[in-house]
Amino acid sequence: MPEGHSVHRITRQFERNFVGHVVHAWSPQGRFALGAAEIDGRRMTDARAVGKQMFLGFEGDVWLRVHLGMYGAWDFAGDIRMDATIASANGRMGQTNQKGTFLEGPNPDAVVFDTAGENSLTSIGAPRKARLRMSESEKEGGDLATFPPEPVGQVRVRLLTDTICADLRGPTACEVLDPAQVEAVVARLGPDPLIDAGRAAEDRFVASVTKKPTPIALLLMDQNVVAGIGNVYRAELLFRARQNPHTPGRLVPEEHVRHLWHDWAKLLRLGVETGQMMTMDDLDPEAYRAALANRADRHWVYKREGLPCRVCGTNIVLEELGARKLYWCPYCQA
């Protein structure tokens, strides 16, 4: 399932390539025909993300809400201008959201091919006709012979301008909403530090965690508690905090909860900048480049069950919690 950094990156693809343009919409598979007809021919005015939810605004106060879920993905094709959060020639990053803040650009020395195709750093530069898939992993395809390309597979909705198209497949949710309905969806979500890094959002997260008897590992995955954290970031955040995943939220010291919030903000920003869930700190340049290139080298515990902990040597444990896989070190996180 795409985690928060991926959804922010996808939204910024729309911000860079679609906002300000008239968009034609249709549903090749037919399941979203009525919704597509509602937004067809309207100019896109906004693109926002909150956690794992994305909202595309159109003229007339019409919004398209998309939640990719486990299997959803966007495919972009055409004259693609890459992710607005990648540093441009002047080093300035694209707007994150309605707050209008900017992120610092990644170190240009960190531009590394990812063997798993998790990032899109190889596509920095001028627009070109190409394909790009954006879900949990971002993968480039080959050059296009014709534009627009024929839809491939079960495309729920295609959004098309004169120069670029975006095809959505397999989402959990795809619906047209009015502003009040959008606000109702957002109100149910926990805070997202990329939207609001202020004290009020932090306090809201802390209050949600410290009043509940639910294990902290489940709370971090609850989108009503905090928006955007998935299985990878959950495991890595808890290890980085040396926090036992089974501790009830109300028994986790407040300073530990605040540390989790700030660490999540840090990792989320890094994930948006690089397109990768980089969770290891203090690596030398060679190790950092290796980690960018290979997913197995950039996590402390995720998918390392049975392997020795990078810190203490104890074998990493894999268990099921809340119908999801949980990876943790029983010594470091005792």
UniProtKB/TrEMBL annotation:
EC number of the protein: 4.2.99.18
Any single Pfam family the record assigns to this protein: H2TH
Listed InterPro entries: FPG_cat (IPR012319), FPG_N (IPR035937), H2TH_FPG (IPR015886), Ribosomal_uS13-like_H2TH (IPR010979), Znf_DNA_glyclase/AP_lyase (IPR000214), Znf_FPG/IleRS (IPR010663)
SUPFAM superfamilies for the chain: Glucocorticoid receptor-like (DNA-binding domain), N-terminal domain of MutM-like DNA repair proteins, S13-like H2TH domain
Cofactor: Zn(2+)
Domain FPG-type stretches: 300-334
GO MF term set: class I DNA-(apurinic or apyrimidinic site) endonuclease activity; hydrolase activity, acting on glycosyl bonds
Transmembrane segments: none
Keywords: DNA damage, DNA repair, DNA-binding, Endonuclease, Glycosidase, Hydrolase, Lyase, Metal-binding, Multifunctional enzyme, Nuclease, Zinc, Zinc-finger
Residue intervals of the Formamidopyrimidine-DNA glycosylase catalytic domain: 2-89
Organism domain of life: Bacteria
Keyword Ligase carried by entry: no
Entry's family note: Belongs to the FPG family.
Protein name as it appears in the record: DNA-(apurinic or apyrimidinic site) lyase
Gene source species: Agromyces ramosus
